[in-house]
Amino acid sequence: MPDCRAILPGWLCDPFGAIRDLLYGVLSGVLPAWLTLLILTLIGAILVVSIVPGIVMGQIYMERRLLAKAQDRIGPNRVGPFGLLQPVADALKLLAKEDIVPRRADKLMFALAPILVLGASLMIWAVIPFGPGLGLTDVNVAVLYIIAMASVPTIGFIMAGWASYNKYSLLGGMRAVAQFVSYEIPGVLAVITPVLLSGSMSLQDIIQAQLGYRWFVFYPVIGQIAIFLFLVSGLAETNRTPFDLVEAESELGAGFHTEYSGMRFALFFLAEYANMFAVSLVAAALFLGGWEGPLLPPFIWMIAKAQVLVWIMMWIRSTLPRFRYDQLMYFAWKRLLPLALLNIGLTGVGAAALRGMVR
Question: Model pTM greater than 0.85?
Fold first, then answer.
C-alpha cells in the first residue's frame, strides 16, 4: 500500500515533526545546542500536559454515550450541543468544590498522593512514539521505563489510603496495591514477547520490526496470547471493569480516595483515563504496528489503533459485572501467570526459529 508521503506533503504527514524542525532551525541559530534541545523538550512536555486533559474529557464523554447506548439510556445531552460540554461542566464543578482535608490526616502525604499518581501517568506519555522520530524522547530502554513508571502509582494509592486517617481508605489502598502488584506480573511477562521478537526495548525499534504489516499480533498463538495478557493486565492496572475492586462502593465507600474531594479527586480520575489511553497507545506500539498504515499520516494511525482498544475497554465495562476479590486474585495467579510463563517459552522458541530462518 502507498505510503502517506507518496500522496500527501511531508509536513501534512508529520506536522509535529515539521514544527519541531522549524523551531530547531530558528532556535539553533541564536542559542547553544543544549539550550535549544532543553527548550524543545520543555515545549513538548507542556504540549503533553495540555493535550492529555482534553483527551481525557473526550474519552469520558464518549464512554458515557456508549454506556448509555448499551444500557438503553440517553446519556449526556443538556450542556452544549449533544451534551459535548458536559465534561467541561464536570471539570468546572470539581474545581469549584470545597477541598476538604480530614483533621487528623497527614496533610503532606494527602496532598502528594494524587500528584504522584497523575505525574507517573503523564511520564509514560513522554516515550510513546506517534511517528518515525515523533515523540517527546526516544529511550533505548523505553519498555523498561514504562514498566517502572506504571509501578509508581501504586505508591500513591497506598499513600492516599494511609494519609487519610480512615480505616476504610487504608483497606482500600492495601487492596489496590495487592491488585496492581498481582496484575503487573503477567503484564510485564506479556511485554517480553515483542521485546524478544524485535531484539530491542526501544518502542521505535519494536515498531520498525513490525513494518511491512508484520505486526506481532498476527504471529500465531504467541501474538494473540501476549496482547490478551497485556490488555487484561491493563484493565486491572487502570482499575477498569471487571477489575474495579479498588472502588467497590458497596464494600469500602470509594476505596483509597474516599476522603478526597474537589480537584484532588479529579486528579485521580484524570490519571485513570490518562492511563487507559496510555495503555492502549503502548499496546498499539507493541503489537499493532504502531503508526503503520496506508494513506493517512502516521500519528493518525497510532491514535486510531489506540482508540479502538479504548472502545474495547468501554465495551467490556458495559458488558461484564465486577469480579469478587477472591476471583480477581485467583484469575491473576492461577490463570494469567501460568499462561504468561508458557507464552514466554513459546516466544523464545519462535524467536530462535525466526533468527535461524533469517540466517
Answer: yes
